[in-house]
Design brief:
Layout (H helix, E strand, L loop, with lengths): L7 H7 L3 H14 L18 E3 L1 H4 L17 E4 L8 E4 L7 E5 L9 E4 L9 E7 L8 E6 L4 E7 L2 E4 L1 H4 L8 E7 L8 E6 L1 E3 L5 E5 L2 E4 L12 E3 L5 E7 L8 E6 L10 E4 L7 E2 L15 E5 L8 E5 L5 E5 L8 E3 L1 H4 L17 E7 L8 E6 L15 E5 L5 E3 L1 H4 L6 E8 L8 E7 L1 E8 L13 E8 L11 E6 L2 E6 L2 E2 L5 E2 L3 E6 L3 E7 L9 E4 L2 E6 L6 E3 L5
Parallel strand pairs: 2-35, 31-39
Antiparallel strand pairs: 1-30, 2-3, 3-4, 4-5, 6-7, 7-8, 8-9, 10-11, 10-34, 11-14, 12-13, 14-15, 16-17, 17-18, 18-19, 20-21, 21-22, 22-23, 24-25, 25-26, 26-27, 28-29, 29-30, 31-36, 32-33, 32-37, 37-38, 39-40
The protein binds calcium ion (4 copies).
Length: 559
């Protein structure tokens, strides 16, 4: 997306987009006859209330910087000290990034403590993604920066050590915004994709030329990376996601690109086969061109088919893609209009110009068993073609498969420029709370108090928090699918590292299960093997370990 001066380029390039517009129209047309999304019965829970606890929680942080940092502004949510409470690492742009340890009282007010350390207080940070690279059980952190990335090894107790040299992760000198990771075959280290946006000039400011991106694979040692291979062509990537789009157990790399800057480009799907060079899916494979101001990707199996659907944020119309092709044929229809989630304009505030959407995230915020969708929004800088008062949306999933924005009633409307975010249960009460970063304005946290108040929270439905565990290397079972059966419905979630807008999460996977008080869980592990169905009780944190006959329940600490 353009800064003010970059916006002038749009007109010159608009003619080149005509072909792409035709393709998008074709996708919308194809969606007309497509009607199966989120066909869950029941649900229809009310609007949860979010209470702004930023100041009392001890959050005091601004993501800042000139045009180079107008993209990015991400965060990582993960447990850096093993107490089960999700902690937060926030990008700061030209300000130092900050690590906040979560000291919230279980079921009570949110509370965070800044943990300052040279390893994490880095400047130039645009975003971050947690993952356990070395399989030691401590989450590590990929820190995306302008001018050279840092990969940090978790030492426990929220301490970190930079391992670029030890692990062979070349920092580079680009503007990194996107990241995703997957474990290929029996590799000990994951394959890492790093998405570069615009090329940087030698003085650190952005050029108007798209950079190529990188794919890191481990070398023969298994615990060190070879020099990165180039993902070329590069079309100004802003989000990447390894996922099993076809339901066949093969994880390919989806890339969202920003058409403000490319000529003749499009979004991409790289076929990633162990031992082979990455290759692009083409029209001959059924891939349909998507040309949007791609900012973020979120996936969720709305259709209940065992294949993820994809939400793609953009400027003006966002996309909700469902697979209409079969395995090996990535043909998608856009059903965002049918489902009420184009999010094309601000829902409140009176600004009638098109929106700029950034971080999408599917989560069930009212625990009614119908997945909801957060879309953060905000003008890139002061671009006059797009809305200035552009608050983030919170769409509640409806029983008929549509979505309705309730951001104002939920209490999360803010007219600062939204960027990265996460919905996570910071106080472990089963209600997903919200953290959002804003460009050149203070980050905020809100506590989800359900239908109650801060003094007296009232849960709106039953829920489960699920973690998977397997032996090294892939200790968090990234690539697994968690299946939950409850109340006659089946929910499926794929565990990914990547997507969003420069923001990643690792930890409890949340399921809202409505009025059901018991459920069953089954796991399809990353190697394709399926466990058995395991009974679990609602409103609990459950750990499923590969090979174990039953799940175990984790009890939050009493204080
Ligand atoms: Ca923690
Ligand atoms: Ca680790
Ligand atoms: Ca819901
Ligand atoms: Ca909560």
């Amino acid at each position: 997306m353009p800064s003010r001066f970059r916006a002038r380029l749009i007109g010159r390039r608009r003619f080149a987009l005509a072909i792409g517009v035709v393709a998008v129209v074709a996708i919308v047309a194809a969606a007309g006859g497509y009607a199966f999304l989120q066909s869950q019965s029941g649900g229809g829970g009310g609007t949860p209330h979010f209470v702004d606890e930023t100041s009392a929680a001890g959050i005091d942080h601004v993501y800042d910087g000139a045009a180079t940092y107008s993209t990015g502004g991400g965060l990582a949510v993960f447990d850096c000290n093993g107490d089960g409470k999700p902690d937060i690492y926030m990008a700061g742009g030209t300000n130092p990034a900050v690590l906040y340890r979560n000291d919230s009282t279980v079921g009570g007010a949110l509370r965070f403590t800044a943990i300052h350390d040279a390893a994490t207080d880095l400047t130039g940070v645009t975003g971050a993604y947690p993952l356990d690279v070395d399989g030691d059980g401590n989450p590590d952190l990929m820190v995306l920066r302008a001018g050279g990335n840092a990969i940090l090894r978790g030492l426990g107790d929220c301490r970190f050590e930079q391992e670029n040299d030890q692990w062979g992760v070349e920092a580079g000198s680009g503007l990194s915004i996107a990241f995703s990771a997957t474990w290929e075959g029996s590799n000990r280290f994951p394959t890492l994709a790093v998405g570069h946006n615009l090329k940087l000039k030698s003085n650190g400011t952005v050029s108007l030329d798209c950079d190529t991106s990188w794919l890191f694979r481990p070398d023969a040692s298994g615990t060190h990376y070879a020099a990165p291979s180039t993902l070329e062509p590069g079309y100004c990537s802003l989000s990447m996601l390894f996922s099993d789009w076809s339901g066949t157990g093969e994880r390919d790399l989806r890339v969202a690109n920003d058409r403000n800057y490319y000529i003749g480009g499009q979004d991409q799907l790289w076929k990633i086969v162990p031992g082979q060079a990455p290759s692009l899916y083409t029209a001959a494979d059924g891939w349909m061109p998507v040309q949007i101001e791609g900012m973020g990707i979120s996936s969720y199996d709305l259709s209940g088919t065992g294949r993820p659907d994809y939400f793609l944020t953009s400027q003006a119309d966002d996309k909700l893609q469902v697979l209409t092709g079969g395995p090996g044929h990535p043909t998608y229809a856009d059903v965002a209009l049918d489902r009420g989630v184009t999010a094309a304009r601000p829902a409140v505030g009176g600004d009638t110009l098109p929106s700029t959407s950034w971080h999408p995230e599917f989560q069930d915020v009212n625990n009614d068993g119908l997945v909801d969708l957060l879309i953060t929004k905000g003008n890139p800088t002061i671009v006059p073609e797009y809305a200035t008062k552009d608050p983030s949306d919170l769409f509640l999933g409806q029983p008929d498969g549509t979505f309705v924005d309730v951001a104002e009633a939920a209490g999360i409307v803010d007219y600062d420029r939204g960027r990265g975010a996460a919905l996570a249960d910071f106080n472990l009460d089963g209600q997903l709370d919200l953290v959002e970063i804003f460009y050149q304005a203070p980050a905020k946290v809100w506590r989800n108090v359900g239908s109650g108040s801060a003094a007296s929270p009232a849960p709106m439905g039953h829920w489960l928090g699920v973690r998977l565990s397997e032996a090294a290397p892939n200790t968090d079972a990234i690539g697994a699918w968690i299946e939950v059966q409850a109340g006659g419905r089946t929910f499926r979630r794929e565990l990914n590292v990547g997507g969003g807008h420069a923001s990643g999460e690792l930890g409890w996977t949340h399921f809202g299960i409505g009025s059901a008080t018991t459920a069953q869980i089954r796991v399809k592990w990353p190697d394709g093997t399926r466990g058995s169905w395991m009974p679990v009780t609602a409103d609990s944190f459950v750990v499923v370990t590969k090979g174990a006959a039953s799940s175990s329940t984790w009890q939050p600490p009493s204080s």
